Amino acid sequence: MVEAQDQLVKLQCELLEKRDKEITAVQVTAEEEIKTFSSVLKKGCDTALAPKRIQTAVTSATEDRISNVIVHGLCDGKSENNNDLELEVRRLFDHMGECTTNVWGMECLGRYKEGTDRPVKLRLSGRNFRDQVLSSKSSLKNSKDCKDIFISPDRSPEEREERWKLVAELRERK
Prior knowledge:
Blueprint: H1 2-48, H2 51-66, E1 68-72, H3 82-96, E2 103-108, E3 120-124, H4 127-135, H5 139-142, E4 150-153, H6 157-173
Antiparallel strand pairs: 1-3, 1-4, 2-3
């Protein structure tokens, strides 16, 4: 009986040693995997935050705005129906002598408020056509129907703020 108990104790000790070895092996493997994962994340973050990548993202966002114009004063109506808006844009472009086939998209900006017209963002075919539209916008001043419609380039919030400061400075000088 004593021998059986001694064997049982030996087996239990062996079992505990094996468990300790397994736990140690799992800990080592987990630490190695965490280090590997950490290095992958670090490399990924370094490349994600690389100056060239940031510059590319900023350039891409700027290029998206380059072919857009914002139109103020178009009667957008209460409905979200783009047909009315398309007719207004066609009428506007007819007054300017431009064709609307180069307008790739349009959307009203902001929420609808009774008695006010929302600005409309027009996505145009490219920078050249945008420049052409901006140069022919002066013809709207002479038009009886479109004298209250204003067209401006799509500016980033920073550009709008900078322009607002310049306009305020110009008003102070006058």
